Each structure stands twice: as structure tokens, then as C-alpha cells.
Amino acid sequence: MTKTGGSSTTRGDLRKRRGLSKLEQGYMGFFLILPWLIGFCIFKLYPFVSSLYYSFTDYDLFKGVQNIVGFQNYIDAFTKTKNVKALQVTFIYAFMTVPLKLIFALFIAYILNFKIKGVGLFRTAYYVPSILGGSVAIAVLWKALFKSDGVVNTILAMLGFSSINFLAEKNWALFIICLLRVWQFGSTMVLFLAALKGVSEDLYEAASIDGASKARQFISITIPLISPIIFYNLVTLLVQAFQEFNGPYIITNGGPRNATTLISLIVYNTAFKDYKVGMSSAMAWVMFVIVMFFTIIAFTSQKKWVYYSDDDGRG
Fold it and tell me: Could you give the count of Cα atoms lying within 13 Å of 120 in the half-sphere of its Cβ?
């Protein structure tokens, strides 16, 4: 017994000598995350803080800061015609694409949740557009499809319809930009599909015995149980919608007559074409505040409609 105890004590002492103290472990952890921390400060934190400062100046891309202008850039953001128009178009774009993408992704996920032949192939096919994401190549392809002599107009001509200049008409141009974003619903669909797989079949069987229709089961069982994923997709899609850039820039370059000019395009054009970095920073902060406002509303409202199984549905 004595030898065993002595042996155990010896091993404990040996671990203490070989191991690191809590203070040393803390330093080691800090040392390991130091490369990320340096990158975060240089590429995230510094631009974030500096842009706030520049938004109160007349900072020029080549001349630097000339004067402090206070809130003038923010006043211009809400009074100049092109800025107000960009805000309006951005809201229209966001409130068109986000609901449509949510509804369409949930609809396809609901269908693919059934056991049908070749379902794996369909899931892959629907997910492929999201892998390509907001790439330049996809935007160029989309432009080729809908230009005046593109594939879509060629098909319309073959069917005996007159061609439509999709990218030169205001209403059509914005619709085509929105359609591109809605078409890339694969990632949202996969999340919905995973959530649907997690809904117990016993609940549907019990509802069927009680005489509930498929529509009633979907509204009363499916929607509440997947509401956390609906909430997550809603927030992420809102953020993406207000930051959209590639599609409007490459396909229409904000035209025709600023019909597809979003806030992101104003930020880019003001900084790198007009060289007014101060004004551009102010518009970027306006966009940030708008996104934060809607995110706060979403998080606040989730208590009323998002069901979490671990807290008995109280949100």
C-alpha cells in the first residue's frame, strides 16, 4: 500500500513537473491565437474604426483628409437623390429576395424530404448553384442569358413571342437581379432539409389519427418545429441582401437609370470612381445601421414565433 501510494505520488509530482501551470497555459493559448488576433486587428478592427472616423471627414482617396465635416455626409446620404434612390432600391431588393428565397427553399426542401426515386440527384442539382455562390462567372452567365440577343430571348422568338430587353427596362432589370439571388437557394434548402429530417414522424402519425390534414400538419407541426432554422435563414439572408454587389454591378452596372443601383454600388462608386472615401464610409455605416436594426428586430421578435424545444416553446 505504501509503495502504491508512493508510486502514485511520484507520478503526480512528475506530471506537475512536466505539465504547464494555469498561467503558462493561458500564455500558450494567447500565443496560439496571436496570428488570428493580429489579422483581425489589421484587417477587421482597424478598417471598422477608421471608416467611422472617415465618415465625419471629406477624406479623398488621393489627397487624404482635408476637413472635418461632421454629420454632413450622413445628411447627404438621406437627402441626395441618387443616395435616396439607392436606399429605396436596396429595400425593394431585400424585401423581394428574402421572402421568395425562404419560401422557395422551404418548398423544395419539403418535397425532397419525401422518399422519392433519385432524390439524392435532385438534392445535388438544387444545391449546385449555391456552391457557385455570387461568383463573377455566374453573373456573366446570367447577363448572357437575359441580354437582348441572349438565350431567353432566342427561346421566346422560337415560340413566337416578341423579345424583351430585360436589362434595359427598369422593372425587368431589378426582377432579373432578384431572380439570380432567389435561384441560389441551395444552402438555405439544405438547412431546411436537415431541420425537416429532425421532426419526429410520431407527431405526424398522431395528427393523422386526429384527422389533421397535410396542410394543418405543416402549419401546426412542421413550421413551429423548424422555426429556429427559419429564424437563422431569415437573419443571414437579410444580411446578404443588403450587402449584394456582384450581380447588380456585373449584369447591369446599376442601370438602367439607377434602377438596380444598391447601397453597395453607391459605396463602391463613391469611393473608387468619385474618390470620396468620407462619403463612401458614411454610406457604409448607414448600411451597417440598417442591417443591425433589422437584425435587432428579428432577435427581439423571435420570442413570439420561434419555438425552442428545450424551453417549452417560450422562445
Answer: 0
Rounded CA-CA distance 64/278 in Å is 10
Q: Is the Cβ–Cβ distance between 106 and 192 less than 8 Å?
A: yes
CA dihedral of residues 81, 87, 90, 96 (deg, nearest 10)? -100
Separation between Cα atoms, residue 152 and residue 270, nearest integer Å: 34
What value, to the nearest 5°, has the Cα angle with vertex 95 and ends 250 and 249?
10
How high is the pLDDT of residue 184? 87
Helix or strand run (H / E) with residue 227 = helix 227-242
CB 90 within 8 A of CB 262: yes
Angle of the 72-79 helix axis to the 81-112 helix axis, nearest 10: 70
C-alpha cell at 79: 437627402
Q: Are 276 and 270 in contact (CB under 8 A)?
A: yes
How many Å apart are CA 243 and CA 216, to the nearest integer? 37
- pLDDT confidence bin for 310, thresholds 50/70/90: low
Average pLDDT taken over every residue of the chain: 87
pTM: 0.84
* Angle at alpha carbon of residue 184, lines to 179 and 185, rounded to 5°: 105
The DSSP call for residue 219 is I
- Cis? peptide before 35, omega within 30° of 0: no
